[in-house]
């Protein structure tokens, strides 16, 4: 069977759906093809245990979703509601904890309980991180310039970047240049003295990365997790009501309302190239669909090493794709609980239990966790980011029951260089459960069901190459005009008619939708035969 469209989008993750929706809004007949029998990619809610339980199976919190996309696609109309959650705690091995509260004054007093010096430094730390976040946010929905090009659009974009940098002032320019290359450990050392306080901030510098807290470049990963917002509050985080799949579902419903079509249950086996141009896709069931524009929401390696013939691509380009850094380092446990766990360090009824909870209290423990990953195994004493969304959104579980999301760092894509076995997956999950039990005695008895996801599951089920949650590491050599590769940072592939809209492109991973929106803007610009789409296009 063969059908002709204006555009075909590969994958139904949130970026692909974003691109598809904007293309459909511009009047293009658009098809989305997805290998799974559900939409959302890593932004998904599934009833894995029972019908009255919803798991946010992969991504689990919201903050980075660009408000411009939210407004432009009218996602509130389609039921998307982000419910902010506040606070959290980092536990120490001696039974103490450091709490983080919504009220900054209370948080400062909590820091002072451990160190008066660090309490004074907190305001300076928050100010400096927010300065960097405000600087980078203005580039999220812009196409990176090609620094080797003399085209007017690239020169103007370089000028825009230079003016934005000059607005920082001389001292902050120096600080910014240092910040992007520093380790999170060195960055925190410039502000804080107490080990627990430093550890409470350090996790955001390693989440999703194949680097340790002492690796250069991890300070930027902290920024990547601080530049989002919920209801206009920058740096805040929230839950998508009904689970993270509500984000993709709202985008899907918007796309369908705009006349789009989604075909699930059939992956793309090959991107069809004729006379040097991408013209269609061949599906696993043998169907072929053709279009003037092909858009891939898959990872860079998946797109070019699995869905394209090597003969259709330059050998040098393929070599660079093979060396793209996309090492997996994360795992996830989704747990159904018979009731709320009791953390011995927290006072009864503490609001902190509604936030994110961590169990690593020194930088050295975090670095040793990374050492395990380098040695080819999962961390025996891992970094854990634990949340119980049902304390904020009770719609995800039956009354009195709870869903627990447990993000784990570090988990290698292979164990001792070999593929994961089922026994190893079970052992990894049990190790995490044992760590939680140390801080919440009786936790094991509350478990009704547990889903364990390693990089094996993340790759096999939703196509995250090596299980990398960001579609590629967030290091300086893979950011801005280097993402995914130098010369290919403007969402266009090496074959005419082929575009990229996934998180392998600028500005990177997270449930942001910026790569999808940016790719759609470039596609529409090309079809209109102009260099740029006017500013404010999202709200047209």
3D shape? globular
Give the CATH architecture of the domain at 2-45 and 60-82 and 242-325 and 466-539: 3-Layer(bba) Sandwich
In the CATH scheme, what's the topology name of the domain at 2-45 and 60-82 and 242-325 and 466-539? FAD/NAD(P)-binding domain
Task: Extract low-pLDDT stretches.
Answer: none
Residues in helix, %: 25-40%
The biggest beta sheet reads:
7 strands, mixed
Radius of gyration: 23 Å
DSSP summary, beta strand count: 20
Oligomerization: single chain
CATH class of the domain at 2-45 and 60-82 and 242-325 and 466-539: Alpha Beta
Gap between N and C termini: 36 Å
What is this structure, in a nutshell?
Helix content is 34%, strand content 18%.
Tell me the layout of helices and strands.
Layout: E1 2-10, H1 14-25, E2 30-33, E3 45-46, E4 55-56, H2 67-72, E5 82-85, E6 88-91, E7 97-100, H3 104-114, H4 116-137, H5 152-168, H6 170-179, H7 184-189, H8 195-202, H9 218-224, E8 229-230, E9 233-234, E10 237-240, H10 245-257, E11 261-263, E12 268-274, E13 277-283, E14 288-296, H11 300-306, H12 315-322, E15 330-337, E16 356-358, H13 363-374, E17 383-387, E18 402-409, H14 422-439, H15 443-446, E19 447-453, H16 455-462, E20 498-500, H17 514-527
Parallel strand pairs: 1-2, 1-14, 2-11, 6-16, 14-20
Antiparallel strand pairs: 3-4, 5-10, 6-7, 8-9, 12-13, 13-14, 15-18, 15-19, 17-18
Helix pairs in contact: 1-10, 1-17, 3-4
